[in-house]
């Protein structure tokens, strides 16, 4: 696998901004991506069993979340 020079620069800059090594930044990014994949698969299974989650349900649940949690979806 190879990265473009622009992508490599962006990764180094992001790692520096997060005050971590490039390796740590890449591992964290891959772990985040895998978590999102598991969440997507879980939600697909949930919706297959119980039906699609509606905008109304999301709005209701957002109202039950603590402050700062409103950024989801």
Question: Could you characterize the architecture of this molecule?
Answer:
- The protein is mostly helical and 73 residues long.
- The protein has one domain (5-64).
- The protein has three helices and no strands.
- It has helices at 5-17, 22-50, 55-64.
- α1 (5-17) crosses α2 (22-50).
- The longest helix has 29 residues, at 22-50.
- It is elongated, with a radius of gyration of 18 Å.
- The two termini are 32 Å apart.
- The mean pLDDT is 91.
Q: Biggest β-sheet: count, sense, barrel? A: none
Could you spell the SSE succession in H and E letters?
A: HHH
What fraction, in percent, of the residue positions are helical? over 70%
Determine the N-to-C terminus distance.
Answer: 32 Å
Estimate the strand proportion.
under 5%
- What ranges have pLDDT less than 50 throughout 5 or more consecutive residues? none
Helix count, per DSSP? Answer: 3
How many runs of DSSP E, i.e. beta strands?
Answer: 0
Shape: elongated
| Alpha-carbon Rg, integer | 18 Å
Q: How much is the average pLDDT? A: 91
What is the domain tally?
A: 1
List the main descriptive attributes of the protein structure presented here.
73 residues; elongated; 3 helices; mainly alpha
Which secondary structure elements does this structure contain, and how are they paired or packed?
Elements: H1 5-17, H2 22-50, H3 55-64
Helix pairs in contact: 1-2
What is shown here, in short?
With 73 residues, this protein is an all-alpha fold. Helices cover 71% and strands 0% of the residues. It is built from 3 helices and no strands.
